[in-house]
Amino acid sequence: MIDELVKALLPLSAPPTGPGWNHADMSRLLGSSRRLPAAVLVGFREGVQPRLVLTVRTDSLQAHAGQVAFPGGRSDPDDGDALATALRESEEEIGLDRTLVTPLGYLDRFETISGFCVTPVVAKIAAGAQLYPAPDEVAEVFEVPLAFLLEPANLRRYTMEFRGHQRPMVEFIHGGHRIWGATAAMLYNLLQRMGRT
């Protein structure tokens, strides 16, 4: 499964640039305002059944409180690139030791309603990596089998109204967690690149 996933990624030697794959949709909602750079780690824990590592954001955060998210966030000036941002943020949010992460490639960039252009970094996480949520940012860390995400019946489609626009959306429900919004859209991009939609 991981081999199939790797073949679908943009290579580490050619990180994505330019606007997100959903730029036209976001431009209708946000106009032409500058999108701030950000990156997330789409990390799969190694094992017989690879598992995607996700977080639940604390209820006290100003943006996206209580939502399921990838570890990641806004790029700092000191970050050399999206990979550096994703590794730094994963260390800060879930205590992930960067020496236990093997970057594999990238997904297409994605623009969020909060004004970011996110570069998703796909990586393997060592099976024995210990994860410790930072209590001020992360309420919970949980894992979802890659096999679950690849099962077409588990991809739910719906329409949401936002600022007078009808927007097609996707979501996954796993173990009582609702994976939706930007996180689900980036996973959908992965499935598209793998030819699984």
From TrEMBL:
Keyword Manganese attributed: yes
Keyword annotations of the record: Hydrolase, Magnesium, Manganese, Metal-binding
InterPro entries reported in the protein's UniProt record: CoAse (IPR045121), NUDIX_hydrolase-like_dom_sf (IPR015797), NUDIX_hydrolase_dom (IPR000086)
Coiled-coil ranges per UniProt: none
Domain Nudix hydrolase: start-end pairs: 33-166
Record's protein name: 8-oxo-dGTP pyrophosphatase MutT (NUDIX family)
Annotated signal sequence range: none
Cofactors that this protein relies on: Mn(2+); Mg(2+)
